[in-house]
Design a protein that fits this description.
The protein has about 475 residues and is an alpha+beta fold. The protein folds into 2 domains: about 1-205, no CATH class; about 315-465, Heat Shock Protein 90, CATH 3.30.565.10. Helices cover about 55% and strands about 20% of the residues. The protein is built from 11 helices and 11 strands. The protein has helices at about 1-55, 60-80, 85-105, 110-120, 200-265, 270-275, 275-310, 320-335, 355-370, 405, 430-440, and strands at about 125-140, 140-145, 175-180, 185-195, 315-320, 340-345, 350-355, 380-385, 390-395, 445-450, 455-465. A 5-stranded mixed β-sheet has the order 6-8-9-11-10. The longest helix is centred in the middle third of the chain and has 69 residues, at about 200-265.
Length: about 475
Protein backbone atom coordinates (compact mmCIF):
# COMPACT_ATOMS: atom_id res chain seq x y z
CA UNK A 1 0.00 0.00 0.00
CA UNK A 2 2.90 2.33 0.82
CA UNK A 3 4.50 1.75 -2.62
CA UNK A 4 1.12 2.24 -4.28
CA UNK A 5 0.65 5.61 -2.55
CA UNK A 6 4.22 6.64 -3.39
CA UNK A 7 3.70 5.93 -7.11
CA UNK A 8 0.39 7.81 -7.07
CA UNK A 9 1.88 10.83 -5.27
CA UNK A 10 4.90 10.96 -7.61
CA UNK A 11 2.65 10.70 -10.66
CA UNK A 12 0.29 13.43 -9.52
CA UNK A 13 3.23 15.65 -8.55
CA UNK A 14 4.78 15.20 -12.00
CA UNK A 15 1.51 16.09 -13.70
CA UNK A 16 1.11 19.18 -11.50
CA UNK A 17 4.66 20.26 -12.37
CA UNK A 18 3.88 19.77 -16.07
CA UNK A 19 0.68 21.79 -15.73
CA UNK A 20 2.58 24.57 -13.92
CA UNK A 21 5.23 24.67 -16.67
CA UNK A 22 2.57 24.74 -19.39
CA UNK A 23 0.65 27.51 -17.61
CA UNK A 24 3.89 29.49 -17.27
CA UNK A 25 4.58 29.05 -20.99
CA UNK A 26 1.01 30.03 -21.96
CA UNK A 27 1.16 33.13 -19.75
CA UNK A 28 4.46 34.06 -21.37
CA UNK A 29 2.97 33.65 -24.85
CA UNK A 30 -0.13 35.58 -23.77
CA UNK A 31 1.93 38.50 -22.41
CA UNK A 32 4.05 38.48 -25.54
CA UNK A 33 0.98 38.62 -27.77
CA UNK A 34 -0.44 41.35 -25.57
CA UNK A 35 2.71 43.43 -25.99
CA UNK A 36 2.76 42.82 -29.73
CA UNK A 37 -0.89 43.87 -29.96
CA UNK A 38 -0.12 47.14 -28.16
CA UNK A 39 2.99 47.79 -30.26
CA UNK A 40 1.10 46.99 -33.47
CA UNK A 41 -1.68 49.50 -32.78
CA UNK A 42 0.70 52.11 -31.35
CA UNK A 43 2.70 52.08 -34.58
CA UNK A 44 -0.48 51.94 -36.64
CA UNK A 45 -1.91 54.91 -34.72
CA UNK A 46 1.19 57.00 -35.33
CA UNK A 47 1.01 56.16 -39.03
CA UNK A 48 -2.66 57.12 -38.98
CA UNK A 49 -1.96 60.49 -37.31
CA UNK A 50 0.71 61.29 -39.87
CA UNK A 51 -1.47 60.28 -42.83
CA UNK A 52 -4.54 62.10 -41.47
CA UNK A 53 -2.55 65.31 -41.05
CA UNK A 54 -0.85 64.89 -44.42
CA UNK A 55 -3.96 63.93 -46.36
CA UNK A 56 -6.62 66.06 -44.68
CA UNK A 57 -4.58 68.81 -43.01
CA UNK A 58 -6.30 68.17 -39.71
CA UNK A 59 -5.50 66.56 -36.39
CA UNK A 60 -9.18 65.85 -35.68
CA UNK A 61 -9.66 68.71 -33.20
CA UNK A 62 -10.66 71.59 -35.47
CA UNK A 63 -14.24 71.73 -34.17
CA UNK A 64 -12.94 71.55 -30.61
CA UNK A 65 -10.74 74.61 -31.18
CA UNK A 66 -13.60 76.62 -32.66
CA UNK A 67 -15.98 75.91 -29.78
CA UNK A 68 -13.37 76.51 -27.09
CA UNK A 69 -12.34 79.82 -28.67
CA UNK A 70 -15.92 81.08 -28.45
CA UNK A 71 -16.37 79.80 -24.91
CA UNK A 72 -13.05 80.95 -23.45
CA UNK A 73 -13.42 84.60 -24.49
CA UNK A 74 -16.25 85.15 -22.02
CA UNK A 75 -14.87 82.71 -19.43
CA UNK A 76 -11.58 84.54 -19.03
CA UNK A 77 -13.45 87.79 -18.34
CA UNK A 78 -15.58 86.07 -15.70
CA UNK A 79 -12.52 84.76 -13.87
CA UNK A 80 -11.06 88.28 -13.55
CA UNK A 81 -14.27 89.74 -12.17
CA UNK A 82 -15.05 87.08 -9.53
CA UNK A 83 -13.63 87.89 -6.09
CA UNK A 84 -15.40 85.26 -3.97
CA UNK A 85 -13.17 82.16 -3.62
CA UNK A 86 -16.03 79.67 -3.53
CA UNK A 87 -17.69 81.24 -6.55
CA UNK A 88 -14.32 81.27 -8.33
CA UNK A 89 -13.75 77.58 -7.58
CA UNK A 90 -17.22 76.71 -8.86
CA UNK A 91 -16.59 78.69 -12.04
CA UNK A 92 -13.32 76.79 -12.64
CA UNK A 93 -15.19 73.47 -12.22
CA UNK A 94 -17.73 74.58 -14.82
CA UNK A 95 -14.92 75.51 -17.24
CA UNK A 96 -13.20 72.13 -16.71
CA UNK A 97 -16.49 70.28 -17.24
CA UNK A 98 -17.15 72.17 -20.48
CA UNK A 99 -13.63 71.52 -21.81
CA UNK A 100 -13.95 67.80 -20.94
CA UNK A 101 -17.33 67.55 -22.64
CA UNK A 102 -16.28 69.36 -25.81
CA UNK A 103 -13.00 67.54 -26.31
CA UNK A 104 -14.67 64.14 -25.89
CA UNK A 105 -17.83 64.78 -27.89
CA UNK A 106 -16.70 67.10 -30.66
CA UNK A 107 -13.33 65.59 -31.62
CA UNK A 108 -13.14 63.86 -35.01
CA UNK A 109 -9.94 61.90 -34.36
CA UNK A 110 -11.71 58.69 -33.29
CA UNK A 111 -13.70 58.48 -36.51
CA UNK A 112 -10.64 59.24 -38.62
CA UNK A 113 -8.61 56.56 -36.82
CA UNK A 114 -11.40 54.02 -37.25
CA UNK A 115 -11.54 54.70 -40.99
CA UNK A 116 -7.77 54.35 -41.29
CA UNK A 117 -7.67 51.06 -39.34
CA UNK A 118 -10.44 49.63 -41.53
CA UNK A 119 -8.63 50.68 -44.72
CA UNK A 120 -5.57 48.78 -43.53
CA UNK A 121 -7.57 45.66 -42.71
CA UNK A 122 -7.38 46.01 -38.93
CA UNK A 123 -10.11 46.05 -36.30
CA UNK A 124 -11.85 49.42 -36.40
CA UNK A 125 -13.99 49.04 -33.28
CA UNK A 126 -12.47 50.59 -30.18
CA UNK A 127 -13.41 52.74 -27.22
CA UNK A 128 -11.60 55.98 -26.55
CA UNK A 129 -11.07 58.20 -23.54
CA UNK A 130 -9.50 61.65 -23.23
CA UNK A 131 -7.86 62.57 -19.93
CA UNK A 132 -7.30 66.29 -19.39
CA UNK A 133 -4.02 67.09 -17.67
CA UNK A 134 -4.34 70.88 -17.37
CA UNK A 135 -6.52 73.85 -18.38
CA UNK A 136 -5.32 77.45 -18.36
CA UNK A 137 -7.17 80.63 -19.30
CA UNK A 138 -4.94 83.22 -21.00
CA UNK A 139 -5.35 86.98 -20.93
CA UNK A 140 -3.02 89.55 -19.51
CA UNK A 141 -2.36 87.04 -16.78
CA UNK A 142 -2.56 83.24 -16.98
CA UNK A 143 -5.16 81.66 -14.70
CA UNK A 144 -4.74 77.97 -13.92
CA UNK A 145 -8.21 76.45 -14.01
CA UNK A 146 -7.09 72.84 -13.46
CA UNK A 147 -3.85 70.92 -13.20
CA UNK A 148 -3.73 67.20 -12.53
CA UNK A 149 -1.58 66.11 -9.62
CA UNK A 150 1.96 65.34 -10.72
CA UNK A 151 1.54 67.00 -14.10
CA UNK A 152 3.90 69.72 -15.29
CA UNK A 153 3.68 71.74 -18.48
CA UNK A 154 7.44 71.99 -18.48
CA UNK A 155 7.84 68.30 -19.39
CA UNK A 156 8.17 67.19 -22.98
CA UNK A 157 4.88 66.76 -24.83
CA UNK A 158 4.71 62.98 -24.83
CA UNK A 159 6.75 62.64 -21.57
CA UNK A 160 7.42 58.98 -22.41
CA UNK A 161 4.23 57.91 -20.68
CA UNK A 162 3.33 54.36 -21.70
CA UNK A 163 1.63 53.14 -18.53
CA UNK A 164 -1.96 54.40 -18.29
CA UNK A 165 -3.10 56.23 -15.14
CA UNK A 166 -5.23 54.41 -12.53
CA UNK A 167 -8.52 55.55 -14.07
CA UNK A 168 -7.60 54.03 -17.45
CA UNK A 169 -7.73 50.31 -18.32
CA UNK A 170 -4.33 48.58 -18.33
CA UNK A 171 -5.09 47.33 -21.85
CA UNK A 172 -5.49 50.87 -23.19
CA UNK A 173 -3.08 52.22 -25.79
CA UNK A 174 -1.77 55.79 -25.59
CA UNK A 175 -2.18 57.35 -29.05
CA UNK A 176 -1.52 61.01 -28.25
CA UNK A 177 0.25 61.73 -24.99
CA UNK A 178 0.71 65.23 -23.60
CA UNK A 179 -1.10 66.84 -26.54
CA UNK A 180 -1.49 70.57 -26.12
CA UNK A 181 -4.18 72.70 -27.79
CA UNK A 182 -3.95 76.49 -27.57
CA UNK A 183 -6.33 79.24 -28.63
CA UNK A 184 -6.65 82.99 -28.12
CA UNK A 185 -7.76 82.71 -24.52
CA UNK A 186 -7.01 79.13 -23.44
CA UNK A 187 -4.40 76.42 -23.37
CA UNK A 188 -5.03 72.86 -22.26
CA UNK A 189 -3.18 69.55 -22.29
CA UNK A 190 -4.64 66.04 -22.61
CA UNK A 191 -3.87 62.37 -23.27
CA UNK A 192 -5.83 60.37 -25.83
CA UNK A 193 -6.27 56.59 -25.21
CA UNK A 194 -7.94 53.87 -27.24
CA UNK A 195 -9.03 50.46 -25.93
CA UNK A 196 -10.18 47.54 -28.10
CA UNK A 197 -13.17 45.74 -26.62
CA UNK A 198 -12.37 42.43 -28.37
CA UNK A 199 -8.65 42.56 -27.65
CA UNK A 200 -8.82 39.47 -25.43
CA UNK A 201 -10.60 37.51 -28.17
CA UNK A 202 -7.96 38.49 -30.72
CA UNK A 203 -5.11 37.45 -28.43
CA UNK A 204 -6.93 34.24 -27.47
CA UNK A 205 -7.31 33.40 -31.16
CA UNK A 206 -3.61 34.01 -31.76
CA UNK A 207 -2.59 31.86 -28.77
CA UNK A 208 -5.17 29.13 -29.39
CA UNK A 209 -2.64 26.88 -31.14
CA UNK A 210 -0.19 27.03 -28.22
CA UNK A 211 -3.02 26.62 -25.74
CA UNK A 212 -4.40 23.65 -27.69
CA UNK A 213 -1.05 21.87 -27.87
CA UNK A 214 -0.39 22.50 -24.18
CA UNK A 215 -3.81 21.18 -23.20
CA UNK A 216 -3.36 18.16 -25.47
CA UNK A 217 0.06 17.38 -24.01
CA UNK A 218 -1.33 17.58 -20.47
CA UNK A 219 -4.22 15.30 -21.39
CA UNK A 220 -1.90 12.81 -23.10
CA UNK A 221 0.46 12.73 -20.14
CA UNK A 222 -2.48 12.34 -17.76
CA UNK A 223 -3.95 9.50 -19.83
CA UNK A 224 -0.56 7.79 -20.16
CA UNK A 225 -0.04 8.08 -16.41
CA UNK A 226 -3.47 6.62 -15.65
CA UNK A 227 -2.90 3.74 -18.08
CA UNK A 228 0.57 3.07 -16.68
CA UNK A 229 -0.68 3.33 -13.11
CA UNK A 230 -3.60 1.01 -13.83
CA UNK A 231 -1.30 -1.51 -15.51
CA UNK A 232 1.12 -1.28 -12.61
CA UNK A 233 -1.66 -1.91 -10.12
CA UNK A 234 -2.96 -4.79 -12.25
CA UNK A 235 0.51 -6.31 -12.42
CA UNK A 236 0.80 -5.89 -8.68
CA UNK A 237 -2.59 -7.52 -8.15
CA UNK A 238 -1.70 -10.44 -10.42
CA UNK A 239 1.63 -10.82 -8.65
CA UNK A 240 -0.17 -10.95 -5.30
CA UNK A 241 -2.63 -13.48 -6.71
CA UNK A 242 0.25 -15.61 -7.96
CA UNK A 243 1.93 -15.45 -4.55
CA UNK A 244 -1.32 -16.34 -2.80
CA UNK A 245 -1.89 -19.21 -5.22
CA UNK A 246 1.58 -20.62 -4.66
CA UNK A 247 1.12 -20.37 -0.89
CA UNK A 248 -2.31 -21.98 -1.04
CA UNK A 249 -1.15 -24.68 -3.46
CA UNK A 250 1.84 -25.43 -1.24
CA UNK A 251 -0.48 -25.75 1.73
CA UNK A 252 -2.96 -27.90 -0.21
CA UNK A 253 -0.24 -30.20 -1.58
CA UNK A 254 1.54 -30.57 1.73
CA UNK A 255 -1.60 -31.82 3.47
CA UNK A 256 -2.12 -35.00 1.38
CA UNK A 257 1.64 -35.54 0.99
CA UNK A 258 2.17 -35.30 4.73
CA UNK A 259 -0.76 -37.65 5.34
CA UNK A 260 0.55 -40.19 2.82
CA UNK A 261 4.04 -39.96 4.32
CA UNK A 262 2.74 -40.51 7.86
CA UNK A 263 0.48 -43.36 6.66
CA UNK A 264 3.43 -45.01 4.89
CA UNK A 265 5.53 -44.89 8.03
CA UNK A 266 2.58 -46.24 9.99
CA UNK A 267 2.45 -49.31 7.75
CA UNK A 268 6.09 -49.97 8.58
CA UNK A 269 5.30 -50.32 12.29
CA UNK A 270 5.26 -54.03 13.44
CA UNK A 271 2.10 -53.61 15.53
CA UNK A 272 0.23 -52.24 12.49
CA UNK A 273 1.36 -55.01 10.10
CA UNK A 274 -0.22 -57.58 12.39
CA UNK A 275 -3.56 -55.69 12.47
CA UNK A 276 -5.52 -56.17 9.25
CA UNK A 277 -8.13 -53.58 10.24
CA UNK A 278 -5.47 -50.89 10.77
CA UNK A 279 -3.78 -51.78 7.51
CA UNK A 280 -7.08 -51.48 5.64
CA UNK A 281 -7.90 -48.15 7.34
CA UNK A 282 -4.45 -46.79 6.55
CA UNK A 283 -4.64 -47.99 2.95
CA UNK A 284 -8.01 -46.26 2.53
CA UNK A 285 -6.52 -43.05 3.98
CA UNK A 286 -3.62 -43.25 1.52
CA UNK A 287 -6.05 -43.88 -1.33
CA UNK A 288 -8.24 -40.93 -0.33
CA UNK A 289 -5.32 -38.54 -0.06
CA UNK A 290 -3.89 -39.84 -3.34
CA UNK A 291 -7.19 -39.05 -5.05
CA UNK A 292 -7.18 -35.55 -3.51
CA UNK A 293 -3.57 -35.03 -4.63
CA UNK A 294 -4.43 -36.23 -8.11
CA UNK A 295 -7.38 -33.78 -8.24
CA UNK A 296 -5.11 -30.87 -7.35
CA UNK A 297 -2.62 -31.83 -10.05
CA UNK A 298 -5.42 -32.23 -12.60
CA UNK A 299 -6.68 -28.76 -11.72
CA UNK A 300 -3.33 -27.24 -12.60
CA UNK A 301 -3.12 -29.24 -15.83
CA UNK A 302 -6.65 -28.21 -16.81
CA UNK A 303 -5.83 -24.55 -16.21
CA UNK A 304 -2.84 -24.85 -18.52
CA UNK A 305 -5.00 -26.55 -21.13
CA UNK A 306 -7.75 -23.93 -20.87
CA UNK A 307 -5.24 -21.13 -21.27
CA UNK A 308 -3.92 -22.66 -24.52
CA UNK A 309 -7.13 -23.88 -26.11
CA UNK A 310 -10.88 -23.47 -25.89
CA UNK A 311 -13.03 -25.91 -23.98
CA UNK A 312 -13.56 -29.17 -25.84
CA UNK A 313 -17.17 -29.80 -24.79
CA UNK A 314 -18.89 -33.11 -25.25
CA UNK A 315 -22.45 -31.81 -25.39
CA UNK A 316 -25.56 -33.94 -25.09
CA UNK A 317 -29.20 -32.94 -25.06
CA UNK A 318 -30.39 -33.61 -21.52
CA UNK A 319 -33.31 -32.88 -19.21
CA UNK A 320 -31.86 -30.19 -16.98
CA UNK A 321 -34.02 -31.08 -13.99
CA UNK A 322 -32.86 -34.71 -14.01
CA UNK A 323 -29.20 -33.70 -14.25
CA UNK A 324 -29.53 -31.24 -11.39
CA UNK A 325 -31.28 -33.79 -9.16
CA UNK A 326 -28.46 -36.28 -9.81
CA UNK A 327 -25.75 -33.69 -9.00
CA UNK A 328 -27.47 -32.41 -5.85
CA UNK A 329 -28.21 -35.92 -4.54
CA UNK A 330 -24.62 -36.97 -5.17
CA UNK A 331 -23.35 -33.86 -3.39
CA UNK A 332 -25.58 -34.46 -0.35
CA UNK A 333 -24.23 -37.97 0.07
CA UNK A 334 -20.66 -36.70 -0.26
CA UNK A 335 -19.19 -33.43 1.01
CA UNK A 336 -22.54 -31.80 1.64
CA UNK A 337 -24.06 -34.30 4.02
CA UNK A 338 -24.21 -31.72 6.82
CA UNK A 339 -25.98 -29.11 4.65
CA UNK A 340 -29.71 -28.46 4.46
CA UNK A 341 -30.65 -28.17 0.79
CA UNK A 342 -33.98 -26.92 -0.54
CA UNK A 343 -34.86 -27.39 -4.20
CA UNK A 344 -37.42 -25.51 -6.25
CA UNK A 345 -37.55 -26.21 -9.97
CA UNK A 346 -39.86 -24.85 -12.65
CA UNK A 347 -38.14 -25.82 -15.89
CA UNK A 348 -41.32 -26.97 -17.67
CA UNK A 349 -39.46 -29.89 -19.26
CA UNK A 350 -36.71 -27.67 -20.71
CA UNK A 351 -33.86 -29.36 -22.59
CA UNK A 352 -30.26 -28.21 -22.71
CA UNK A 353 -27.18 -29.04 -24.74
CA UNK A 354 -24.72 -29.74 -21.91
CA UNK A 355 -21.39 -31.29 -21.23
CA UNK A 356 -22.63 -33.12 -18.17
CA UNK A 357 -19.15 -33.54 -16.66
CA UNK A 358 -18.33 -29.85 -16.83
CA UNK A 359 -21.83 -28.85 -15.70
CA UNK A 360 -21.46 -31.18 -12.71
CA UNK A 361 -18.17 -29.43 -11.87
CA UNK A 362 -19.91 -26.04 -12.15
CA UNK A 363 -22.76 -26.94 -9.81
CA UNK A 364 -20.53 -28.83 -7.37
CA UNK A 365 -18.23 -25.83 -7.06
CA UNK A 366 -21.14 -23.54 -6.18
CA UNK A 367 -22.51 -26.05 -3.63
CA UNK A 368 -19.04 -26.65 -2.16
CA UNK A 369 -18.47 -22.91 -1.68
CA UNK A 370 -21.87 -22.60 0.02
CA UNK A 371 -20.77 -25.20 2.56
CA UNK A 372 -17.13 -24.06 2.84
CA UNK A 373 -17.86 -20.39 3.47
CA UNK A 374 -20.49 -20.83 6.14
CA UNK A 375 -19.89 -20.14 9.83
CA UNK A 376 -22.99 -22.10 10.85
CA UNK A 377 -24.97 -25.06 9.56
CA UNK A 378 -25.16 -24.49 5.79
CA UNK A 379 -28.61 -23.88 4.34
CA UNK A 380 -28.70 -23.90 0.54
CA UNK A 381 -31.62 -22.89 -1.68
CA UNK A 382 -31.47 -24.09 -5.27
CA UNK A 383 -33.95 -22.52 -7.65
CA UNK A 384 -34.36 -23.30 -11.34
CA UNK A 385 -36.63 -21.63 -13.87
CA UNK A 386 -36.86 -20.42 -17.48
CA UNK A 387 -36.66 -16.76 -18.44
CA UNK A 388 -36.35 -15.08 -21.85
CA UNK A 389 -35.45 -18.36 -23.61
CA UNK A 390 -32.76 -19.03 -21.01
CA UNK A 391 -32.38 -21.47 -18.16
CA UNK A 392 -31.64 -19.71 -14.87
CA UNK A 393 -30.17 -21.56 -11.90
CA UNK A 394 -29.85 -19.75 -8.57
CA UNK A 395 -27.79 -21.12 -5.70
CA UNK A 396 -28.32 -19.16 -2.47
CA UNK A 397 -26.63 -19.76 0.87
CA UNK A 398 -26.54 -18.38 4.42
CA UNK A 399 -22.76 -18.00 4.49
CA UNK A 400 -20.42 -15.19 5.41
CA UNK A 401 -21.16 -13.22 2.23
CA UNK A 402 -18.86 -11.24 -0.09
CA UNK A 403 -18.09 -7.52 0.01
CA UNK A 404 -18.52 -5.23 -3.01
CA UNK A 405 -14.82 -5.04 -3.86
CA UNK A 406 -14.31 -8.82 -3.85
CA UNK A 407 -17.41 -9.34 -5.97
CA UNK A 408 -15.62 -7.63 -8.88
CA UNK A 409 -12.78 -10.17 -8.82
CA UNK A 410 -14.10 -13.47 -7.43
CA UNK A 411 -14.36 -14.96 -10.95
CA UNK A 412 -10.71 -14.12 -11.68
CA UNK A 413 -8.21 -16.94 -11.77
CA UNK A 414 -6.53 -17.60 -8.39
CA UNK A 415 -8.48 -14.80 -6.71
CA UNK A 416 -9.74 -15.43 -3.22
CA UNK A 417 -11.78 -13.06 -1.08
CA UNK A 418 -9.91 -11.53 1.85
CA UNK A 419 -11.39 -14.00 4.36
CA UNK A 420 -10.57 -16.84 2.00
CA UNK A 421 -6.83 -16.56 2.63
CA UNK A 422 -7.35 -17.76 6.19
CA UNK A 423 -6.51 -21.46 6.30
CA UNK A 424 -9.88 -22.16 7.87
CA UNK A 425 -11.19 -21.92 4.29
CA UNK A 426 -8.98 -24.02 2.06
CA UNK A 427 -8.86 -23.50 -1.67
CA UNK A 428 -6.84 -22.38 -4.67
CA UNK A 429 -9.05 -19.58 -5.94
CA UNK A 430 -10.11 -21.67 -8.94
CA UNK A 431 -13.63 -22.81 -8.12
CA UNK A 432 -15.52 -19.74 -9.29
CA UNK A 433 -13.05 -19.27 -12.14
CA UNK A 434 -14.12 -22.72 -13.37
CA UNK A 435 -17.79 -21.80 -12.92
CA UNK A 436 -17.36 -18.68 -15.08
CA UNK A 437 -15.40 -20.49 -17.79
CA UNK A 438 -17.83 -23.42 -17.98
CA UNK A 439 -20.87 -21.13 -18.14
CA UNK A 440 -19.29 -19.03 -20.91
CA UNK A 441 -18.24 -22.17 -22.83
CA UNK A 442 -21.93 -23.17 -22.91
CA UNK A 443 -22.92 -19.70 -24.21
CA UNK A 444 -24.11 -18.50 -20.80
CA UNK A 445 -22.88 -16.41 -17.91
CA UNK A 446 -22.82 -16.24 -14.11
CA UNK A 447 -23.39 -13.34 -11.69
CA UNK A 448 -23.36 -12.84 -7.94
CA UNK A 449 -25.40 -10.85 -5.46
CA UNK A 450 -24.13 -10.78 -1.90
CA UNK A 451 -23.80 -8.82 1.32
CA UNK A 452 -21.31 -9.54 4.10
CA UNK A 453 -22.99 -11.61 6.80
CA UNK A 454 -26.14 -12.06 4.70
CA UNK A 455 -25.08 -14.91 2.42
CA UNK A 456 -24.66 -15.02 -1.36
CA UNK A 457 -26.73 -15.83 -4.43
CA UNK A 458 -25.05 -17.06 -7.61
CA UNK A 459 -27.13 -17.00 -10.78
CA UNK A 460 -26.09 -19.16 -13.76
CA UNK A 461 -27.78 -18.42 -17.10
CA UNK A 462 -27.66 -21.00 -19.92
CA UNK A 463 -29.38 -20.95 -23.35
CA UNK A 464 -32.54 -23.09 -23.62
CA UNK A 465 -32.88 -25.20 -26.80
CA UNK A 466 -36.30 -26.72 -26.12
Amino acid sequence: MKNKNTVLILGITSILILISVQVFIILGVWNQKNELFAIRYTILSQEALYNIWKGRSTDGFDTVRLLLDQYSEQSVKDLHTINDKKELADRKKDILAYFTKVVNQEQDLSGLLSQYFESRGFDKNFNYKIIINSVEMIDVDTVVVYQKEGFSNHKSPDRGRRNPPPDISSSSILVRGGTQLEGNNYRFNFDYYIDFSNKQKVILKETSASLGWSTLSILLVGIMFMITYRNLMEERRLSNLKTDFINNMTHELKTPLSTITVAGKTLEMPQIRNDDAKILETAKLIGKQSVHLNQLINMILEISMWERTQFQLDKKTVDIEEVMNDVVDSFKSGGGNNAVIYKKYNFSGAKLDLDVVYFTTLLNNLLSNAVKYSDKQPVIDIEGFTQNNNICIKVSDNGIGINKFDQKHIFDKFYRASTGNIHKFKGLGLGLYYVKKIAEAHGGDVSVNSKPGKGSTFTVTLPDIS
